[in-house]
Amino acid sequence: MIVKSLVNDFIDLVFPDSCPACGRQFVKGEECICTSCEYDLPLFAVVDNILDRFIGRINLLEARAFLKFYAGGITQKLLHAIKYNGDKALGIHLGSMFMNSLKETNVFSEIDVIVPVPLHATKLRLRGYNQSAVLALGMARATGLMVDEKTVVRLKKSETQTNKTRAER
Questions:
Q1: pTM for this structure?
Q2: How far from 146 is each of 99, 142, 159, CA to CA, in Å?
Q3: Are the CB atoms for 112 and 69 separated by under 8 Å?
């Protein structure tokens, strides 16, 4: 056990893990995101139902958000780490944090299954994994629910939304 700990400490010394939000090296006990950045996450209040943002676009019974998005902010850096750098552990961690924050409300007490937004097969092959499914896995771990990636399929290959305006998205 002591040898394993020493080996891990040596690996961390040579190949240190760093926070995807701020770039600082993790200290012992930190994983995925440093304590400082996790404390500074721009959280939505979980009690705020954001349904009014979807009026006239889609019929929903509930809508909740976890992190506020600001260009160049922590949330964007974390999402880029998940989506483009393949940081699956971070996606699972954030998905779990989101569901744990929702446990204080009962809005999702009647959910049977978590269905991530699917990627088109071409995009899935290109990226190697679906970042929504990774977030869903973290949500499932926090709740004990199952993730269903088979029921909903993306048939139309849509163009990237990266360069679109909010209205175009």
A1: 0.80
A2: 13, 11, 30
A3: no
- Cα–Cα distance between 105 and 64 in angstroms, integer? 11
CA distances from 17 to 34, 44, 108, 139 (A): 10, 28, 35, 24
Q: Output b/e per residue, 44-80; b: 16+ Cβ within 10 A.
A: eebeeeeeeeeeeeeeeeeebebbeeeeeebbebbbe
| Length of the chain, in residues | 169
Mean pLDDT of 96-107: 84
Q: What is the pLDDT of residue 140?
A: 94
- Cα 148–132–41 angle (5° rounding)? 130
33 forms bridges with which residues in the sheet? 31
∠ Cα 66 25 79 (to 5°) = 30
Contact 31, 93 (CB under 8 A): yes
Write out pLDDT tens, residues 63-101: 788 899 898 999 999 999 999 899 999 999 999 999 988
Helix or strand holding residue 38 (H, E): helix 35-39
